């Protein structure tokens, strides 16, 4: 017999204290299942080994505090000898905290979740499992389909959520890119990135460069980019930018000039040509300025409390109107679809 559905009243939910799982790494790696992908030999495993050491020792990772705990690293493409050599290069001390390695494990179909369950039940202070790589625990006998990809990750996520542990999967990217969504480069179907909590894409400038961009996006984390450099066998942060900072970097300067102008004038009406003359800017054409205004009307302009309207008449032509809306936050009743 199927049990009845269980619901929570919205008001009760708002009033009831609910504990959210802490981030594994503050403001960088939320709890749950994360996945990192990149081209072969880009330094993904070096990054994961550094993460494992930082969590086990309670040290900052990529400049962010971590929640210390026991770590199990399933390094399925390596030998113990290779892992030993990497540890020699990464640290001088001999105290690693609680960090354990294995180069073999069962597949998802043959009992991996049961193996992980026995570890957690024996050692309840486990904080992180790293599986390097995902493909080696999935096997090669499955058809690549959205349903299969999602189902495999769902098994891992159910275990992670049920025991309150973090799991980091290492994966590869496909050769062809996707200009619309960089995370579509992950090998397999969208079932993989749809099921995980957080995605990391390690994108090197070229095969020989020591610099890379780490792109991060997740259910509990807004998109951000870290510019990183591989130094002394570990990745170090050069810069870190949020979605808002990246958006501003790609915003044409004329838009900020317009905002400053309107803050002084409070209101303005006229053609794009007249507006450019008053701004003293000849870097863009009138039709380009009109496009920018329309593009940012529901984001940057409204963020500054600037209301914009546009009309076209036979007598006046194209008329742009702006007005500062004092006492409003610029977003009431409107949805921002510009980003």
Model description:
The protein is α/β, with parallel strands linked by helices. It has 2 domains: 10-242, Rossmann fold; 251-324, Phenylalanyl-tRNA Synthetase, Chain B, domain 1, CATH 3.30.56. The protein has helices at 10-15, 44-57, 80-90, 112-122, 135-138, 146-163, 190-195, 243-249, 253-265, 272-279, 286-303, and strands at 33-38, 70-75, 99-102, 126-132, 166-172, 198-204, 211-218, 221-231, 234-242, 267-270, 306-313, 317-324. It has a 9-stranded mixed beta sheet with strand order 3-2-4-5-1-6-7-8-9. A 3-stranded antiparallel beta sheet has the order 10-12-11, with helices on one face. A hairpin with a 6-residue loop joins strand 6 (198-204) and strand 7. Helix 10 (272-279) crosses helix 11.
List its traits.
single chain; 339 residues; alpha/beta; Rossmann fold; Phenylalanyl-tRNA Synthetase, Chain B, domain 1; 2 domains; three-stranded antiparallel β-sheet; 34% helix
Topology:
Elements: H1 10-15, E1 33-38, H2 44-57, E2 70-75, H3 80-90, E3 99-102, H4 112-122, E4 126-132, H5 135-138, H6 146-163, E5 166-172, H7 190-195, E6 198-204, E7 211-218, E8 221-231, E9 234-242, H8 243-249, H9 253-265, E10 267-270, H10 272-279, H11 286-303, E11 306-313, E12 317-324
Parallel strand pairs: 1-5, 1-6, 2-3, 2-4, 4-5
Antiparallel strand pairs: 6-7, 7-8, 8-9, 10-12, 11-12
Helix pairs in contact: 10-11
Give the gist of this structure.
With 339 residues, this protein is of the alpha/beta class. It is 34% helix and 25% strand. Helix 3 links the parallel strand 2 and strand 3 (99-102).
């Amino acid at each position: 017999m199927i049990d009845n559905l269980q619901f929570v009243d919205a008001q009760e939910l708002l009033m009831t204290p609910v504990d959210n799982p802490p981030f594994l790494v503050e403001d960088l790696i939320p709890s749950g299942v994360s996945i990192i992908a990149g081209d072969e030999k880009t330094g993904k495993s070096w990054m994961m080994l550094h993460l494992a050491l930082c969590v086990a020792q309670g040290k900052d990772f990529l400049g962010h505090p971590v929640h210390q705990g026991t770590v199990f690293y399933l390094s399925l493409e390596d030998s113990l000898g290779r892992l030993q050599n990497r540890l020699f290069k990464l640290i001088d001390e001999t105290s690693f905290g609680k960090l354990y390695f294995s180069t073999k494990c069962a597949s998802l179909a043959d009992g991996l979740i049961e193996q992980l369950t026995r570890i957690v039940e024996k050692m309840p202070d486990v904080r992180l499992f790293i599986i390097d790589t995902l493909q080696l625990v999935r096997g090669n006998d499955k058809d690549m389909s959205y349903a299969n990809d999602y189902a495999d990750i769902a098994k891992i996520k159910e275990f992670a959520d049920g025991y309150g542990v973090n799991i980091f999967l290492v994966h590869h990217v496909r050769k062809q890119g996707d200009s619309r969504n960089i995370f579509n480069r992950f090998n397999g179907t969208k079932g993989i990135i749809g099921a995980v909590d957080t995605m990391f894409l390690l994108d090197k400038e070229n095969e020989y460069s020591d610099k890379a961009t780490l792109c991060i996006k997740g259910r509990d984390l807004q998109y951000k980019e870290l510019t990183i450099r591989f130094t002394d066998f570990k990745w170090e942060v050069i810069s870190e930018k949020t979605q808002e900072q990246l958006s501003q970097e790609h915003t044409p300067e004329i838009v900020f000039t317009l905002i400053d102008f309107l803050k002084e004038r409070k209101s303005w009406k006229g053609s794009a040509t007249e507006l450019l003359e008053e701004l003293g800017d000849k870097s863009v054409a009138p039709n380009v300025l009109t496009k920018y205004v329309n593009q940012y009307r529901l984001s940057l302009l409204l963020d500054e409390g600037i209301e914009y309207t546009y009309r076209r008449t036979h007598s006046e032509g194209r008329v742009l109107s702006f007005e500062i809306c004092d006492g409003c936050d610029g977003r009431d009743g409107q949805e921002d679809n510009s980003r």
